[in-house]
């Protein structure tokens, strides 16, 4: 035990000695695929999940664009991938200008891309990007005096739809921020928030935390538009404006299963209008670009045998292990789950089922089913409600136990769709 402990300290010292990159906030951001800072020191497997491996001031102008941040950092930290092997990820930490250091929000952005260059730590610099859509939430959280950490939860392989890996990376970003400390109080409270692809990472973090990080005590998790079941989602979005999620979803889920990936690629057509080249184009697209490129396409037309590609035991295994919520643990933190009853992308029935399962074994959930709007509208319609709920859990004024499931009718005038 002692030996282990000593060798761990040596490893950490070794790692600390290779922490490079003097703070240079004015430097232009470099895409992660080209920035050597995005690589772990080779000793990283010996570090513990959540250990800080590198830290730097975030390049670019984030401090200027986020008026209420006094400083913005990138942390590269040790985590565990979707197959339970040592890995690493990066988070972007916003320090609020005015704060009592009592609250940390882990905010998961739905970047939904298999291009590592769409990771928030880089993409936050581009206000026109997908991450640009949610910048207001970060501004608001900062103006409330909360520290905000925004993890690249898909990790170095941009493993979209890999629930286990996304959950681990989300949990470990919180550990990393707490380990570094910043000026957070000893008794600071921390919570998670995410919508859609961001709730994917948040929910998996909540269900994995009970075993993976039992020492953590999250004040809560607010999660909207939960993608609870990807078989169901893949069918729902085929041929619709959401089809652009499918190529990335299939590549993301196989990104850590080489045999499944090889099989997937072998099933792609090599000619005709729906061929391998068009399918793989998603590897260099942000989600907004993918939505535009694949809009209304029947994505299974890219495969020789259509949707039967999903029936392969190789693909089934990846799906079973990574893409159905509610099987890896029962979250013990209070949760706010909000969802449009008419969500056309992530069916309400699938989320009802997850909530029922958790409620059957004592979870603490407020589940609000909004009778107005669809998937996009709910992002706006649920925003204020989620912020108010987070303010209560982070402020220590939240008192709720058991499950409260109710239909609500929330309508925000400028909500899309
Ligand atoms: C930050 O930089 C980006 C491009 O690098 C630019 O579009 C944006 O306007 C800048 N924001 C501020 C507040 O300077
Ligand atoms: C910064 O916070 C103050 C309140 O502390 C708020 O009035 C202001 O709008 C915030 N600025 C931004 C850019 O969010
Ligand atoms: C996921 O959804 C599909 C299609 O609706 C359904 O057949 C399957 O049972 C669901 N899987 C889980 C694990 O809930
Ligand atoms: C593959 O699809 C692209 C469109 O994505 C098309 O331009 C190209 O001609 C196709 N290739 C073949 C060999 O049919
Ligand atoms: C996709 O289909 C919807 C509904 O039919 C339509 O409104 C939209 O314009 C289509 N988009 C494209 C890019 O064809
Ligand atoms: C939501 O609000 C908008 C704008 O006030 C209104 O046009 C729309 O009818 C409302 N929707 C419902 C279902 O009440």
Automatic annotation (TrEMBL):
Sections of the chain in a coiled coil: none
GO molecular function, one term: triacylglycerol lipase activity
Cited InterPro entries: AB_hydrolase_fold (IPR029058), Lipase_secreted (IPR005152)
Signal peptide: 1-21
Region listing for Disordered, in residue ranges: 24-45
Origin superkingdom: Eukaryota
Family: Belongs to the AB hydrolase superfamily. Lipase family.
One Pfam match: LIP
Alphabetized SUPFAM superfamilies for the sequence: alpha/beta-Hydrolases (SSF53474)
Keywords: Hydrolase, Signal
Gene Ontology annotations of biological process type: lipid catabolic process
The protein, known as: Secretory lipase-domain-containing protein
